[in-house]
Each structure stands twice: as C-alpha cells, then as structure tokens.
Amino acid sequence: MPVKHRMSRQHVVDMCRTMLDRGxxxxxxxxxxxRVPGHQLYAVTPSNYDYDKMRxxxxxxxxxxxxxxxxxxxxxxxxxxxxxxxxxNVYRERPDVNAIVHTHQPxxxxxxFLRKPIPALTDEQVRFLGxxxxxxxxxxxxxxFLAKNVQKKxxxxxxxxxxxxxxxxALGTDPDRAVFNMALLxxxxxxxxxxxxxxxxxxxxxxxxxxxxxxSKLRKDEKRIxxxxxxxxxxxxxxxxxxxxxxKTEVPENPERATAADLGYSITEYLDVDDTMRRLKALxxxxxxxxxxxxxxxxxxxxxxxxxxxxxxxxxxxxxIPGGVQHNLAFNYPFPLAIDGAHGAHLTDRDGNVYIDFLxxxxxxxxxxxxxxVNERVAEVIKESGPVTGLFHEYELKLAEIINQYxxxxxxxxxxxxxxxxxxxxxxxxxAHTGKKMVIKVGGAYHGWSDTMVxxxxxxxxxxxxxxxxxxxxxxxxxxxxPHDLGTLKRKxxxxxxxxxxxxxxxxxxxxxxxxxxxPHDFNASVRKLCDEFGAMLIFDEVVTGFRTGxxxxxGYFGVTPDLTVFGKAVSGGYPMAGGVGGKxxxxxxxxxxxxxxxxxxxxxxxxxxxxxxxxxxxxxAIQEMARTNAPVIAGRAGDRLTxxxxxxxxxxxxxxxxxxxxxxxxxxxxxxxxxxMRNPVKLLKENKGRKKLMEQMGAAYAAHGIITLAGSRxxxxxxxxxxxxxxxxxxxxxxxxxxxxx
Length: 743
Known about the structure:
By secondary structure, this protein is α/β, with parallel strands linked by helices. The chain is about 40% helix and about 10% strand. The longest helix has 24 residues, at about 175-200.
C-alpha cells in the first residue's frame, strides 16, 4: 500500500538533500517540515535521525496541534522532531507558509549568541525575508515556551528569524523558497557580521522608503498564498484504497424494443448543486493557481518541438481562413493542433503525437470517434443514394421514428443543418404558434450564433456585449435571467406581459454551457410551471444532452416535457449537417411544407442539404448502436470514474480546483472564469483575462501530457473510454497537477 502524503514527504527529503549538499545541515541537527496541501497536517523530519540516510517513509506526519499522526506505511517507530510544536504554531499562524527550515548554521548562530537582529541591509533581503531579521526570545529547545515565542514573532509577516542562543528559522511559500530564504539569511548574516567587526556602529541600512516598497511586495505575495488556504473549502476526500467506479454496464435484452427508461441514464447520482456552487465560488474568490513558470516553459517547448507540423499548417491557414481555423473548438493555446486520425478514445496529430480524446468533437460522438459499425452501414446507403438527392429518402422517416421511440414527447421532428438553425427555427415556431414575440434565455448559455440569441452570451448579465454586427432590433425582444434565479425569470415573464407576452423560455436543462453552472434537480420542473402559468413555450436546448444524457435525453432524465426540443451534432452521431427541432404535433404543424402548411401559420425554414441521406442514415444507425450497446450509460460510468479520480488528485495536491460531472459531461475548473458575471463587473473586468489565460495554459498542459479537453475545463467521455483509458488519463493529470505552483 503506498505511503500517504508521499509528495509532501518527498519535499522534506529533497530539502534535506539540498541543504546537506550546500553544507547547511549537519548529521541530525535542526529540522525541516512541509505543509500537507488541503489538510491540517504537515510532514516533518524525525527526531535524532541522520539526514544522509533519510527516506520518504521515515518522514513523520503531524497535525496542527503538534500531535504525531503515525501510519503503518510511514515512519513506523520513528517519532517527529522535538520542535514539532513550533512548526505547528507557525502553520496555524501563517497560512501563507508552506515550508519551514530550522537550522543551527554558523554565521546566523553567531548573531544568535550576540542576540543582535539584522536590520534592512538590502532590498533583496527585505523583499524575501522581511523588514528585519528579528531575535526570538530564548526558551529551552522543544518546549511550549519556545513554540509560543516563535508564534508571536512570525505574526509580523517576516520570513526569517534568529532564536536567541539557539539557531534560525526560515519560512517559505513553498519548499524551494524556504531553502532559498535560509541561504539568503546566512549570506546576510555573514555580511552583517563582517560589517560589525570592521567598523562597529557604522553599518548603514537601506532608506526606509525602499524598505517599505520591498516589504509591500513580500506582503502582497503572502496574502495571495494565504488566500489559497483561508478562502478554500474542505476538499472532497477520496481514500487511496477506494476502488474507482467501473466504466461498464449491462445491456438489456432486445434493446431495439427497450424504452429509454429501460436503458437507463448516464447520470448515476445527481450532483449536490449547493455544494458544487460553494466550491466554484470559493475557487473564483481565490488567487489564480497555475503552473510553475518552469513547467509552463516545458509545455511551450512541447508545442515548439513536438508539434512542428501542426504549427506549419495552421500558420499557412491564417492566410486563407479568418483566425486560422473554421470553428471555435479548434482554438487552442499556444496554437491549434492539426488532427489526422481519430479512433475511439484517441486522436493523432500531424506529427504523430497521440492524445486521449475528451473533446469528442464537442460532445456528439458518444460511441467514440470514427465508430466503424456506423461508418460501414452509412457507406452502404451512400453508395446507392449519394450524400444528397434533394428529394425524399427513407432515412428521413427512420430517423424521426427512432427519435420518437426513445423520446415519445418528440411527436414530430424536422431536420435542419445545425444546432444554431434548430434554435432559430424553434424560436420562430414558438412565436408563430403563440402569437407572442418575447423570448427569455438563461444568461451565460450558448444557443448558437443567430442574431436573436447572441445575447447574454457566456457572461450572465452581459446583454449585447458580444452582439457586434447585430442590429438592436434583432435582440430587442430577447431577455435574459440569471442562472438558477427563478425569481428573476418570473419578473421577466411579468414584465413581458405589457410587451405582448413571452413566446418561449429557452434553457439548457443541465445548466448554461453544458452544466458549467449546474442547475438544481427541480429547476426544469419549476420553469415548466412558470411557462404554463404565463402561456409561454418551454424549449429545451439538447444539442449536447440529447442522447448523451441517455436515449431519453435530459427531458427523460428529469421527467419534464418541453414543448419543443432542439437537437444538434449528436443527432447525426457526429456526421455533418447535424441539427433539428422536434415536439408536440400541434406545435410542429407550423413547419408544414408545401400544400401541408396551414394557411397563415406555416413558417419559412429550409435548407437543401437538411435531412440528407448521409446525415439521417448516420443518425439512425448511431442511435441504434447506442441502444444496442447502451453507450450513453457506459460513457456516464467513465465520467464517474474520471471525476472521482480527479477529486482524489485534487485532494492529494491540495488544489482549489473543482471537478464534478453530470454523467459523461465532466467539468474540471481550475480558474473559474466561466463563473464570472455582471453582478460583479469590477471583478469581471479585473480578472477575466487572467483567469481565461490560466484556463488556456492548463488546457495546453493537458495536451502536452497527451489529453485533449474542451478549453481546458470540460471533457466528454464516450463508450470508448475503458477503465484503462481513464486510468491512463488520471496518470497524466497527476503529472500536470504535480507541476502547479505551490505543490
């Protein structure tokens, strides 16, 4: 069984090795400790044990009361340093301190015998050690008196102290900084002693203004690091020996006759929304926590040296394609990767680098990428009909029938070219059917790029902030309500009464941006009641959740029936020309074509390539295969395994990151940029760029370690993600998290 808190213990051993090599430690003198991230614990050297022989298993774990916490696979019969009470007091008093060094180095010890503090000699000294290196009153070693004396002094915010007739204490925001501060203290001690002996009483210090400027930088750093601890929430504890959920499930007999309820849903247990939002808010309230500078340079070096073919072709693309790529999903930091191969759970770029694919084309490929059984059957159809005829084809009907089989509330279905087109059509249908004009969406949600819906995009409360090129009249009848805020939604519905009424409320049933702001379980039912009360139609945008949540969609999972449902890329299993809208027959009748259109009621929607044989056959076969294999449920179990494993890693490294999932939709928030909104515009303006940059850098780090995500914060699992694939991914995430600042 692996030793607990190995990383913190390893840091202690590494610090000891470094100081031994530099001559700052001798035999068994002094002691060294490192805070265990996310726990009220620290790792410390054992008492009276030779540093040269010290192993990771020999390092002791102590709590913040100074009590030894032995474990069978750790220090065994060894006991912690007699100064463990002193270390505990420092960690309690100073949340910015993550490592402590206590030594008896010679030059600083000379000042300990003189009991002479070191004034501010250089701005470097003040910048890292504090206003002065103060003297801590004498008390016998290992006593509570000494521990209290140290605690009183460290409250000043300084990082180096001389203990009268004893030795020194150096503090750091991380292990490297603690060792650096200890070495700087010895350097300053030598200089000060030489100055004292050469010209006693004539030692000059730096000007007070310079000292204050340098010290203010130190305090700023300390506050930033301290906030990562004091403003954090208790991490989700995942025991090392806990068996992760398995990405397997049973497939019912005769799946072609099964209902969506028989097949089940990808969400094993709905998440605790209140707790998740509390963690997300804590993340946003904390300072940024990204990669160490050296680790980020390694990431950039990966792209420069291992992805040269991708860089060459995407640079060429900038001359002929605006921005260099055709879709936002392809924008990646520091430059887009060009993919040549996609198979199951993996992607291969032009340079031959292989990645675990958690993008899955933005969500539609629930079976896994380039799924052969569907490809083969689609090829047979296209061999006969070609990709499009412009006339009716049987798979138009087959697709509509199989959707109705698993989603009975989709009585009729109209195929279109994309999710954006489907939203446009649904809004137009709602207005035509109700005779009302106003539309309400949830702020922050993305419902395509149509003029009407580019409103409150991605940032709740931003109204037309992203509506460049769109006339005011196009959004004049669109309103937004803040996520989760049923009170605001009701007020908007009341306000719209005087404007002619609300035609529709459009929601993503899991929450904006595929659940980036997850909704409470009863939210959709509450929206349904409000729509009924005010005579508005409820439109579910199931571009992502349709089939991914289960073959019954989010509507089936929540047991809420919308009036209209929007589908996108998943409805054709990832094949192009993917989109459509379905719902009750009486509502869908406004889409009637030709002579079937009701006089004065039918609306104009179209597209020569809509409902082409290629897309419809692909959608029909993909849904058939999802039912036969129960792919949505298997993908959901893979999401459970990935999320639980990520939570274990977040706990292991004491990171403020938040991981949660809604079945096969997995969120890993490292910056929380998507949680910013216009309720706090100053914070949005101040932090949006920095948090977005961190998210991009983390996405690049994942890619450099062989994982493709959506913008570094979202992942879609598929049936191809076996337990082995997920475990491989977790190993790669482990490598990335180990390179985060302060770990």
